[in-house]
Amino acid sequence: MPQTSVVDLNDVGEGEVQSTAELSQLLQLYGGFPSSLFVRQEVKMVWGILCNNYIGSSPPNNAYVLVGSPGVGKSALLVLFCCYLATHHDYNIYLARSLKHAGRTSSPHVLLCFRGKEVTAYPDCRPHHMEALWATFRTEHVHNLKFLIVGDGYRQANFESGQLDFFNTCNLLSTSAQYRLTEDSNHKLLGVPAWSFQSIQAMARAFGTLEVDELYAYSGGSVRAFTRDPFDLKMRTILQCNSVTAHTSVALRECISGLLDQGIDIMRRLFICNVNREESYVNPNRWLYCVDSTIVLKELAAKATLESFVNNGRDFAIEINNTDYVQTLKELLVQQMEYTVHPDDLKLILAKNDDDNWLQQNSGVVEALKRGVATNVVKKVLAKPQMIGSYEIRALGVPTEGSRGNIHVLVVVPPKEWGDVRPSKAREGEVQSTAELSQLLQLYG
C-alpha cells in the first residue's frame, strides 16, 4: 500500500473535503472505503486522541473501543487510522472487518494483515480461518512492539465465546454504542459522536446537496442515512419506526441506555456534551443519547398515544391532543387481534371506576371479563364517553400501585367479529357490550 494513498487527518483542515480515491480503489474488495471524506471537528478530535495513544508509545497506553451510533463514520476512521499507522509508522496490524451483506445468513469477514506497507488481504474469511491466521500472525510478531490486533464492526456478543474470542485481547475495536465494559476489561471507551445538524449542513454545502432540512428530519445524525437515496431513506425510517416495540419506544423517548440488541441505536444517536474537550470523548458520563430525527420523534409520539406525568402525589393530567393518536392506537390494536375488524369499528374507553382508580389486570372484575361476564363496574365504565381527540383525563393523587405511569383502556369490538373466540358462557347481550374485554391495554410503561 503506497504511503501517498493514506492521509494524516492532522494535516487536513476542519470542514475540508479530503480525496481518498486511491485508498477507496485499493479497499474495494475488502469492505470498501469512501472516495472522499468531509473532515468535521469531532473526527479530528478522535484522530488526535488515537495518535497520542498509539504513536510513540509501545505498547499503547490504552486499548480503545470506538463506540457510537450506526453510520457516523467509525469504520472509515478506524480503517484509515490502521492504514496510516502501517504506511507512515511501520506498524504490523491484524485488521478484521465484519461485513453486513443483504441475503447472507451470517456476516462474512474480511482480513487485512499489514506488515508496514506490505498488505496480505483475504476477501471472504471464515471464523476458523481467522483464528488460524491470527495465531500465525501473532507468532510472527510476538516480539514486535508495533503489533496491533484490530476489529471493525463486531458486536460484543461476537467474541465473548467461540472462534472469535481472541478479540477480547484486541488493541483497537469499533463497535456499536451498546458495548459494555466488564469489570476485568483492559479496554477504554472512546466515543465517536453523531453528526450535528451544523456538520451535516456544512458537508451538504461542500457536496452540493440542497434538501438538507427534509433529509435530516429522517436521517438525524447518521451521515450514512443522510447520503442514501431520498426515497430509500424515507422508507427505511418508516419501517424502522413500525418495528419498534412498546418497551423500546419508552427507552427511546426517555433516553434509556439499555435494551441490548433491540435495534435501538438505529434511531437513537450518541452525542458528546462538549466536543471541544478531549476528556469528553473518553468519559461516558459526558455522553448524551437522544432521538434527533423529527420524523422518528413524531412516529414515537403517535405510538405512545397517551402519556401520564405524575409528580409527587399531586394532580396530573393527560391530554389526547390529536385525534390521530387515538386512530393510531386502534390500528395497532387491530394488528394484535385474532380476528378481522376495521379500526373505526373499535371503541376505546378509559377503564376508570367510580373511585377514580384504574381497573387492574389482576382484579376480580377483569378476571370476570375474561370469562365473558360484565359486572356492574364494567357496565358503568362502558356508559362513559369513548376516547376522542382533545380529551383530557384528570385524577387526584398518585395512581394505585401497578398503574404508575400507565393508562388503562377498555377495548370494545363489534359482536359480529367475535366468531369462534366468543366466550361460551357469555350471553349475547353481554358480548355486545363487553367484546374484547379480556385485556386492559397499558399504553405507557
Automatic annotation (TrEMBL):
Keywords attached to this entry: Secreted
Location(s) in or outside the cell: Host cell; Secreted
Highest taxon above the source species: Eukaryota
GO cellular component: extracellular region; host cell
Family annotation (InterPro entries): Crinkler_N, P-loop_NTPase
Pfam family name, one: Crinkler
Domain Crinkler effector protein N-terminal intervals: 314-412
Predominant place of localization: host cell
Protein name from the UniProt record: Crinkler effector protein N-terminal domain-containing protein
Protein species of origin: Aphanomyces astaci
